[in-house]
UniProtKB/TrEMBL annotation:
Ranges where the ABC transmembrane type-2 domain occurs: 35-255
Protein source organism: Actinoallomurus vinaceus
InterPro entries: ABC2_TM, ABC2_TM_bact-type, ABC_2_transport, Nod_factor_ABC_transporter
Main subcellular location of this protein, as a coarse class: membrane
UniProt-annotated location(s): Cell membrane; Membrane
Protein name: Transport permease protein
Transmembrane segments: 37-57, 69-91, 112-139, 145-167, 174-196, 234-252
Membrane topology: Multi-pass membrane protein
Keywords noted in UniProt: Antibiotic resistance, Cell membrane, Membrane, Transmembrane, Transmembrane helix, Transport
Keyword Nucleotidyltransferase: no
Similarity field: Belongs to the ABC-2 integral membrane protein family.
Amino acid sequence: MTDLTFAPSPGAAPASRMIRAQTAYELRTLLRNGEQLLLTLIIPVALLILFSAAPLLDVGAGKRVDFLTPGVLALAVMSTAFTGQAIGTGFERRYGVLKRLGATPLPRSGLIAAKTLTVVAVEVLQAIVLCVVAFALGWSPHGNPATVILLLIVGTAAFSGFGLLMAGTLRAEATLAAANLVYLLLLVLGGVIFPLTKFSGGVRSVLELLPISALADGLRQVLQHGAGFPVRDLVILAVWAVLGLALAARFFSWE
């Protein structure tokens, strides 16, 4: 009798291998996208160099680069976890990519894990590039690196939740416009480049509750002023993270 045993045995690859393959695909796609590179690397680096080298604004006592670097790091997190992820996922949803991936052995949890790993990998690259540029400009960081990492993780969760919520509920074109508009507004109003002390008391109190403001301020408290644990900023970010991820899980539509 003929042996019909297949070698290797047919079937889905292990989940870890599928996630690695999808992560590699997501990274290649992102790095080939000129708009994404502009958002994630070129704009943050350009802002850091421009405002650190030229006295275009008053950032208070101390070196400009010490004030600007934490804010630009926060902007980099927002550009990847929120703006880039919202736009990329929105167009994947529109073109049916997510629907087709749903028909593959890759589970939805695996797709989310791959996207999360992609965001983290890009953020690591951003942090390395920005820190190298900042050190070249004379940056003198302080504080506990573990607290910085915690702030970046919670901030990433906050921005990711709302990025996925936007991508999973709006049309791709609307997501593109809305994500870029939010990016520009928070760049100006979130304490990234311009100190929130420039705003009046009532307006400043509201702006301080924004996730970008909390992340920039928390990083600044640690890296510029050597604070131990910015509880208020972490609480604000945690609230945004829980709210955004809960809404995304509830309303995200894959088709």
